[in-house]
Amino acid sequence: MSRPRAVVTGGAKRVGRAICLHLAQSGFDVAVHHRSGAEQAEEVAAQCRAAGADAFTVAADLAHTDQVQGLVSGVLERWDQISLLVNNASVYDPVPFEEIDAAEWDRVQAINTRAPFLLCRGFLSALRAADPSAIGAPAGQHGVVVHMCDIGADNPQVGYTHYSVSKAGLVMLVKTMALELAPAVRTVGISPGHVAWPPAYSDERRGRLASRIPLKRVGAPDDIARLVRFLTLEAHYVNGAIVPVDGGLGKRY
Ligand SMILES: NC(=O)c1ccc[n+]([C@@H]2O[C@H](COP(=O)([O-])OP(=O)(O)OC[C@H]3O[C@@H](n4cnc5c(N)ncnc54)[C@H](OP(=O)(O)O)[C@@H]3O)[C@@H](O)[C@H]2O)c1
After folding, report:
1. How far is CA 206 from the centre of its chain?
2. Is the pLDDT of residue 13 over 70?
3. Is the separation of the CB atoms in 123 and 75 below 8 Å?
4. CA distance 217 to 215
5. Is 100 buried (19+), middle (13-18) or exposed (0-12) by CB count in 10 A?
6. Does residue 141 register a pLDDT over 90?
7. Cis status, amide bond into 183, omega within 30 of 0
């Protein structure tokens, strides 16, 4: 049985970092994508290697199609099979509705929706070539794609029209891929609530937002990482589902 190989976008920090480390500890080799976080990505890759993984870093600004292709070829130069692609990288900058111009709209859609689509296309042959037994999947089910969505895809937020639309598009990408690429490739989505605060949020805002969560606490990047592992290695009959990880927050809207 071959070792499963995973590509994680935005793997240098926060949620992506937790996913990379958890996958390495679960027996995956890991390609750690980053944009600005070269040093942090190298540190994550080193920790993955310490856990026994073949791990390396790849840089790309996902706003640019040529760099998305560069990420694909950078990985495929080393690996011809991929068991898991995690589309985790994302941009989340608030802009009032009337100030979102065409360039800002396009940038957010490019990073959050177009790049995940292009990466799925770019890695499709490698996903279809993966050994099902590497992830304990039945014959014919070769690769898995996990898209990191957001409960905000269903629940609009003031100041985030471009972001919310991009994540709503990603939710539909989960569903279309689940229909069109199965059985060879299984596709799932994860919709976090609050699992890692944006650094700009004040303590007052954090407390106010946390108090609205039915479980009365925020989540953590590891809550997402554990689910990525479960959806990949255990949930072989789950296809096209988008799983909220939000302490019940999405039920409050
Ligand atoms: N944090 C939460 O509570 C929460 C809530 C709902 C949904 N989510 C979703 O869960 C995922 C992870 O959340 P997070 O908070 O850890 O994300 P994040 O810190 O906002 O972003 C993750 C990574 O995306 C990368 N990125 C941003 N712009 C990029 C670009 N143009 N090209 C390539 N990479 C780019 C950054 O990489 P570099 O640092 O290397 O530049 C960044 O580290 C995201 O998809 C997010 O939308 C998170």
Report:
1. 23
2. yes
3. yes
4. 6
5. middle
6. yes
7. yes
d(CA 245, CA 248): 8
13 lines ligand 1 (CB under 6 A): yes
pLDDT greater than 60 at residue 102: yes
Q: Whose CA is nearest to atom 13 of ligand 1?
A: 15
What is the average pLDDT across 164-182? 98
- pTM for this one? 0.98
Q: What is the third-level CATH fold of 5-251?
A: Rossmann fold (3.40.50)
Please state the φ and ψ torsions of residue 135, each to the nearest 5 degrees: -115, 15
Q: Name the token pair of 104.
A: 């800002």
Q: Which of 71, 74, 188 is nearest to 137 (CA)?
A: 188
Cβ(196) – ligand 1 distance below 6 Å: yes
- In the structure encoding, which two tokens stand for residue 202, read together? 């004040």
The domain spans of the chain are 5-251
Ligand 1 in reach of 132 Cβ (< 6 A): no
Average pLDDT of every residue of the chain:
97
Tell whether the model's pLDDT for residue 4 goes beyond 80: yes
Amino acid at 23: L
